[in-house]
Amino acid sequence: MITRLQPIGLLIGRVVLGVVFIAHGWQKFNENGMEATAQGFEGLGIPAPTLSAYFTVGAEIIGGALLIVGALLPLAGLWLASVMLGAMYFVHPLDGAFFSQEGGYEYVLLLTALSIAIGFSGGGALAVDSLWLNKIGEKKEEDEPVRAESMA
């Protein structure tokens, strides 16, 4: 029973997390604008603020979309986790409050952990990665030469 429901659970997790990241990236890109986002990053002491702003928005929008469809999950998970670790360091420092309503790092810590967990989950049967990897596995099985030992 659990095995049959696992792909649905992973799909829900991927979609929800992806939507959250896309919403945050879209807010920075469309509502705030990249110039204002870069200025905000500069005010927070983030190095190379313009580059960091584009890296962050790219991670949140593209990485969020990759999570939703389940493609390149380890790469997407690490990309998003790196952005969240940067947010934890520059915006929500560990020496400050824990709870997010107090400006703490609880929310970005959760997003970091979920990005890594889903990134390395395999995505489930309903992920592009699973479909692609299954095709590669089938192709390798078809291409394997028959060994002499197995013929005896």
How would you describe this structure in keywords?
0% strand; mainly alpha; single chain; DoxX-like_oxidoreductase; DoxX; DoxX family protein; 152 residues
Q: Could you walk me through the main structural features you see in this protein, from its secondary elements to its overall organization?
A:
This is DoxX family protein. Belongs to the DoxX family. The chain crosses the membrane at residues 7-26, 107-132. By secondary structure, this protein is mostly helical. The protein contains 7 helices and no strands. The protein has helices spanning 2-32, 34-43, 49-69, 73-90, 106-119, 128-143, 148-151. Helix 2 (34-43) packs across helix 3, helix 3 crosses helix 4 and helix 4 (73-90) runs antiparallel to helix 5 (106-119). The protein is globular and about 55 Å long. The mean pLDDT is 91.
Give a brief rundown of this model:
The chain is built from 7 helices and no strands. The relative contact order is 0.14.
Query: What is the CA-based Rg, rounded?
Result: 20 Å
User: How much strand?
Assistant: under 5%
Termini, distance in Å?
41 Å
Q: What's the helical proportion of residues?
A: over 70%
Largest sheet: none
